[in-house]
Amino acid sequence: MPMLLMMLAAASAPMASVRVAFDRDGVTTVDSRGLADAASGRAVTADDPVRIASISKLVVAIGVMRLVEQGVLDLDADVSERLGWRLRHPNYPDVPITLRLLLSHRSGLTDHAGYLIALDEGIQAAVAEPKAWDDANPPGRFFRYTNLNFPVVASVMERATGERFDRLMERLVLAPLKLDACFNWAGCSAEAKARAVVLYDEGKPVRDEQAFIAGCPVTPAKDGSCDLTTWQAGRNGALFSPQGGLRISMRGLAKIGRLLLSDGSVDGVRLLSPASMRVLTTPEWTFDGSNGVQNEEAESGVRAGGFNCRYGLAVSFTATPLPACRDDPVGDKRPRIGHAGEAYGLRSGLWVDRAAGTGIAYFATNVTPEPGARSALTLTEERLARGE
Hints:
Elements: H1 2-9, E1 16-23, E2 26-37, E3 42-43, E4 50-51, H2 55-69, H3 80-83, H4 99-103, H5 123-127, E5 143-144, H6 149-161, H7 165-174, E6 182-183, H8 190-194, E7 199-201, E8 204-207, H9 209-214, E9 246-248, H10 250-261, E10 265-266, E11 269-270, H11 274-280, E12 285-286, E13 292-293, E14 310-311, E15 316-317, E16 337-343, E17 346-353, E18 358-364, H12 379-386
Parallel strand pairs: 5-13
Antiparallel strand pairs: 1-2, 1-18, 2-3, 4-9, 6-9, 7-8, 10-11, 12-14, 15-16, 16-17, 17-18
Helix pairs in contact: 2-6, 2-7
């Protein structure tokens, strides 16, 4: 298979890439290249679901806003009331932690204690670890991109509804939009599972999605068992990876983008009110030089030239006109909203220009961390953002 051998030899080239451009009315262009599965030689398409990593957070925020509209959740209430136990920063016990702070990465939590929680463990024990917290900054004052925020959010959602997170997200977002998408594969159709995109890094498979589909859909218990009948609402919101476990095709992700373009409705389905969309499309935090860690993987201090310069409720804002910001992957200085994703050699992006009424959804596997020319993202991401 000459094409396969050539791609495996070129470990620096994406194994697969898909870019879908869209406007408010639908998809406008599709560019699919490479292999979804090198072992079988299956070519990738815009209908193949892939683990989109942190773009999952934006979709979770849409689910949260639906519950806020229904009066089930309150963005500014102390989440302790829903969790059934007191969630506090150990150094700042008088500061309530809210969904607004969790969604905007200003809760004071960090990823230093990890965010993958076994089936037989709970979120309460995870946040009781002292290193799970930022010692120096109280909740509300400092931005630190933290995956652990979202298992807490998912636990709140479960406790408020009594529903398992993946099924709740299907009810709130995926099913109304008629998306064959799911968190950790549990809710996707057999047809979608058969089209799963394998993740590659340095030319080698690093995430065998078919093996994951056939196995346990969550982090197993410490003894290796996988008994989901032990699930309890809110005990462990990490199970179905709210921080990055959504599997969705780029055609499907484009529909999420069109929802953002159209003030909360798409193809005749009203998912969010214009008022909720205004909340989602307003920054909660703007970098001022010292009030946050701009880059996802940074563990301390501020690295100049980082990507996150403005952030809302799981929404990134691009093209921030500040000298320390390199957050414009398209390079045209037009502000966009959306989110980037990174995991297991994959890079992904969803970016919409609400003023122009256009957007792009893309991913690539086997991406090397070659720096971009216009932003803090990789060169591959910049090329996909521009359609090169």
